[in-house]
Amino acid sequence: MLIRGAAAATRLSGSTLMSSGARLFPASSAQANLAAAGRVLIHGNAMEGRDAAASRIGGVRRSSAATLAEKEQQKPKEQVAEGAEASGAVAVKRITSYWGVPTSTVMKEDGTEWRWRCFMPWETYQPDLSIDLCKHHAPTTLMDKLAYWTVKLMRVPTDIFFQRRYGCRAMMLETVAAVPGMVGGMLLHCKSLRRFEHSGGWIKVLLDEAENERMHLMTFMEVAKPKWYERALVFAVQGVFFNAYFVGYLISPKFAHRVVGYLEEEAIHSYTEFLKELDKGAIENVPAPAIALDYWRLPQGSTLRDVVMVVRADEAHHRDVNHFASDIHFQGRELREFPAPVGYH
Ligand SMILES: [Fe+2]
Ligand SMILES: [Fe+2]
């Protein structure tokens, strides 16, 4: 009886998956959710805004999107659960596939459908373009000097390989730039588990940085398509850099963060050169990719130049975060002792 019920539930849920399309929920509710998310983000608490928006959107989907037919089709499953509960047994639902976990259709503020799955409206932001781009951490200690010259040396082959092809250069460098945040965040995550202690927000900040860098890559991919030998280069560089940074972070997070701080300073320099080439007309100022318009909330009609401006501002924020992290270690303290700059854009 139980198995028959479960089999029926499987068949029905399968047919539901086959027949149901995108679930639309009232645009006004979605807009209110997005507006609420935006409001909270602007006031600085990105976590609360994100969670609030997610729970509101989830609530809307659960309460209004399921049709009567869908609810009817869910009945056999519920009967199995109720029956099992009454007899005190644990329900076993035999299924053959988990394919098609339902997702929500999210609407944009303008009423059109949100087209991205890699980021949601409540994760978008407008970077602070007024950030000081000229700040430079003067290397005084031997370790800082070592970090500084390591980065300067790394720049030599990069300059030779790419020369003034800044679009391609940006795309390739972002494949490397997205690694340190992920490695650092992962190691702090494991440390938090091992020691039964909070991270002070640093896991989130570093993983957010990695994701932000990956979004830079997803954006530049739209304007510069990688050639086969460039893909091969990324493959090799990633293999070396990931492992080197992993070991480096284990040995000295102070040094690792300082290296990233200087890498970000170099990135600011590279994007400034990119802007000069755009202004000279050496690089065509094409329209901004659609992904960039949504991710940085850029106005319609924005161009590649606007994209480079916001990416450069992102790099300046990464610079501050990583030099700050290195300074904390320099003082003999741990990152978790100082609140991480969550939502610092
Ligand atoms: Fe970047
Ligand atoms: Fe960066």
Characterize the structure shown.
- The structure is a single chain.
- With 345 residues, this protein is mainly alpha-helical.
- It has a domain at 147-158 and 165-337: Ferritin.
- The chain is 66% helix and 0% strand.
- The protein contains 11 helices and no strands.
- It has helices at 2-19, 27-42, 46-65, 68-87, 142-162, 166-195, 202-220, 228-251, 253-280, 290-295, 304-330.
- The chain binds fe (ii) ion (2 copies).
- One fe (ii) ion binds at residues 177, 213, 264, 267, 315, 318.
The termini sit apart by 57 Å
Number of separate strands:
0
CATH class of the domain at 147-158 and 165-337: Mainly Alpha
Tell me the strand percentage band: under 5%
**Gyration radius, in Å:** 24 Å
* The CATH homology group name of the domain at 147-158 and 165-337: Alternative oxidase
Number of helical segments? 11
Category by helix and strand content = mainly alpha
Instruction: Write the CATH architecture name of the domain at 147-158 and 165-337.
Output: Up-down Bundle
The shape is globular
Low-confidence segments, given as residue ranges, are: 1-66
Would you tell me which CATH topology of the domain at 147-158 and 165-337 applies? Ferritin
Membrane topology: Multi-pass membrane protein
InterPro entries: AOX, AOX_sf
Subunit structure: Homodimer; disulfide-linked.
Catalytic activity: 2 a ubiquinol + O2 = 2 a ubiquinone + 2 H2O
Concise synopsis of the structure shown:
By secondary structure, the chain is mainly α. It contains eleven helices and no strands. The site of one fe (ii) ion has 7 residues, from helix 6, helix 7 and helix 11.
